[in-house]
């Protein structure tokens, strides 16, 4: 028993030192809710398809002012990424709806307008669509 501890402890110490030296201490996981609301003009439906490396959240059709919500825990490695395709009329756009680096929010409420997604309403933080 004590020999197992003799092996595990030094390994933990080495792991801790290597991650600290990197300046990349592991992040505490955080619970996040992402909500996406259709605020397009002319009453058009918005089709949203969100994914991460592990999850496909399926296609959601939102009428005007309707929203779609999902939640997850961020990764301790700071690599959480959810991206979505947005389709309306003859338009198709992509957006990284959550990345650890950019987003501090835990209630990340996005309002979708033609120009791009806005965090905290259209007077909040508005972003451009992904380039591709
Ligand atoms: C929007 O989607 C709903 C179903 O979710 C459908 O009944 C309605 O006809 C659609 N409206 C338009 C304008 O396409």
Distance between the termini: 54 Å
By CATH, the architecture is named: Sandwich
Overall structural class, as computed from helix and strand content, comes to alpha+beta
**CATH class group:** Mainly Beta
Strand content: 35-45%
The CATH topology is what?
Answer: Immunoglobulin-like
Q: What's the story with the biggest beta sheet? A: 5 strands, mixed
Structure, explained:
The chain has a 5-stranded mixed sheet with strand order 4-1-7-8-9, with no helix packed on it. Strands 3-2-5-6 form a 4-stranded antiparallel sheet, with no helix packed on it. It is α+β, with helices and mostly antiparallel strands and 132 residues long. It contains 1 helix and 9 strands; from the N terminus they run αβββββββββ. Strand 7 and strand 8 (116-119) form a beta hairpin. 15% of the residues lie in helices and 44% in strands. It is elongated. It has one domain: Immunoglobulin-like (Sandwich). It starts with a helix and ends in a 6-residue tail after the last strand. The model has no long low-confidence stretch (mean pLDDT 89). 2-acetamido-2-deoxy-beta-D-glucopyranose (NAG) binds next to loops. This is S-protein homolog. Belongs to the plant self-incompatibility (S1) protein family. Keywords: Secreted, Self-incompatibility, Signal. Residues 1-23 form the signal peptide. It is found in: Secreted.
């Amino acid at each position: 028993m004590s020999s197992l501890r003799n092996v595990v402890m030094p390994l933990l110490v080495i792991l801790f030192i290597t991650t600290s030296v990197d300046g990349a201490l592991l992040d505490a996981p955080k619970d996040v809710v992402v909500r996406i609301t259709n605020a397009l003009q002319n009453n058009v439906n918005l089709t949203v398809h969100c994914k991460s490396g592990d999850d496909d959240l399926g296609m959601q059709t939102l009428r005007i002012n309707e929203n779609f919500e999902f939640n997850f825990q961020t990764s301790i490695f700071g690599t959480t990424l959810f991206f979505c395709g947005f389709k309306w009329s003859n338009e198709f756009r992509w957006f990284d709806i959550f990345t650890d680096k950019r987003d501090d929010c835990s209630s990340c409420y996005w309002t979708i307008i033609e120009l791009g997604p806005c965090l905290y309403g259209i007077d909040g933080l508005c972003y451009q669509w992904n380039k591709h």
